[in-house]
Amino acid sequence: MVARVIRQMVAVAALSAFAGGAPVAQSDRVTVSREQVAHAMQAAGFETTADQLEFLSNVTSTAGARLRVAKVTTQSADTALARLNCPARECLPFYVLVHDSQVAATPSRSAHASDGEKAKEQPLVKRGKSVTLLIENTDLRIVLPAISLEAGTRGQVIKVTSPDHKRNYRAEVLSEKLVRSKF
């Protein structure tokens, strides 16, 4: 997994170097600041400060670009990897590391939609897709591959099954590829 992330970062760096041929003139580009990224993270529901961010490459955008958090995954106990992008070619997609033990792969409660809005949300987990099932209690944590039997949004409890379809579980959707169950 780490090798895949590194390959993606190298690809993004190569695309960044190639971006000089984009229709926007190089003089119109500005460096993306930590404060801009922190603001985008906060808007997505992550309690993050600029001091907790580490850029993996030099990132530029058009002046006044609107950053969006596309995905956040936990890398270790105190580090998360955030993928950000911009609409309408204002910037190339890029990654930043967030160093904070409080940052998880899901936004804080303040960013969750109300029940009426949840019905309209697009599912993070699609039916039939591979996911990682995290089964845990206070003393034990088990990580297993699984297949989703239902589509679900963040926080929703769905059915998943083992790859051989012999065991079924009820699990809460944490992210696009991660669901959690307790025993």
What characteristics describe this protein?
single chain, 183 residues, alpha+beta, SH3 type barrels, 2 domains, 5-stranded mixed β-barrel, 4-stranded antiparallel sheet, 17% helix, elongated
Q: What do you see in this structure?
A:
This protein has 183 residues and is of the alpha+beta class. It has 2 domains: 98 residues, no CATH class; 70 residues, SH3 type barrels (Roll). Helices cover 17% and strands 34% of the residues. The longest helix is centred in the N-terminal third of the chain and has 17 residues. It is elongated. The two termini are 27 Å apart.
Briefly characterize the structure.
This protein has 183 residues and is of the alpha+beta class.
Secondary structure elements and pairings:
Elements: H1 2-18, E1 29-31, H2 34-43, E2 53-55, E3 60-62, E4 68-76, E5 79-85, E6 94-99, H3 115-118, E7 130-136, E8 141-148, E9 157-161, E10 168-173, E11 178-182
